Amino acid sequence: MMHTLKDVLAVETPPSTDSYCAVPYGRLIESVREHVEKIGPVTHESWELAREGKQLFGTMRVDSGHKDHGLAIGIRSSHDKSLSVGIATGASVFVCSNLCFSGDAVTLMRAHRSQFWDSWEGLVVNALAQAGAKYDDMAEQFERMKLIDVDQDQGYGLIGIAAGIKTITPTQTNAALRAWRNPPQEAFEPRNAWSLYNALTEGAKKAPVGTSLDVHTGIHAFTVERLLRAA
User: For the chain, does the N or the C end have fewer beta carbons within 10 angstroms?
Assistant: First the structure.
C-alpha cells in the first residue's frame, strides 16, 4: 500500500538506547534528498510503510533524459531493528513504475549508536557518486534485453524457474505470470527478455516492504544470468 510523505513523517520515532540508534524517517529522507538534488530535481516519490510504520521503503526518481526509464534511488529503514538502513540506485520504468535494482548498486549499513550519521552521510555520497555509471550499465542491459527473443512458453518456463529457486514467492509468481500472459502495458507486448523482466518486476510489487530490495536485486541477477549471459 502506498503512503504519502506526510504519513511517513507522522510515524513516531522510538527512543534510542545504548546499543541502538533510532533513525527518524524524516531526517533520513532529507539527508538523501539533499544529495540527490545535486544530481537533478526529484520528479517523483513513492513511499510504503509496513508493520504499523515499523518498516519503510521508498523511492525518489530523477529524470535521466531517457525516454523509457529514469534514475531511481531506493531507501529502506525500520524502527523495530528488522531492517538495516540502506540506499540503492537503479532505474524506474516510466510506463509502469517498475523498479530495477542490481545487487552491486545497493549499499547497506546497520543503524548503531551515535556514529550512524557520520558513516551514513559518507555512504550516501559514495552511492550517488557511482549512480550515473551504474544506471548507464543497467540502461545498456535493458537495450540488450529488447533484442533477445523469448517466446510465450519460454517465458512461462523462466518464471517457473525463478519461483523454483525462490527468487520470487508464489504470490509474486502469480502476478508475474498474469503480466506475462496479458501485459498490462502495450510496451511489454513484444515477446522478449525486456518484457519478461518487467513481468517479473510487476510480480515484485507484491513483495513485502521488508523484502522489496532483496526481491528486486534477485530478479535483476536472475535475468542477467539466465538471459543476457546465455545470449
Answer: N
pLDDT by residue (tens digit) across 109-139?
766 566 788 888 888 999 999 999 999 999 9
* Residues 200, 227: Cα–Cα separation, whole Å: 13
Q: How far apart are CA 147 and CA 183, in angstroms?
A: 18
Distance CA(229)–CA(102), nearest Å, equals 15
Q: Are 2 and 63 in contact (CB under 8 A)?
A: no
195-198 contact pairs (CB < 8 A, 24+): 195/150, 195/155, 196/150, 196/155, 196/158, 196/159, 196/223, 196/227, 197/100, 197/142, 197/145, 197/223, 197/227, 198/93, 198/96, 198/98
Q: What are phi and psi of 18, to 5 degrees?
A: -60, -30
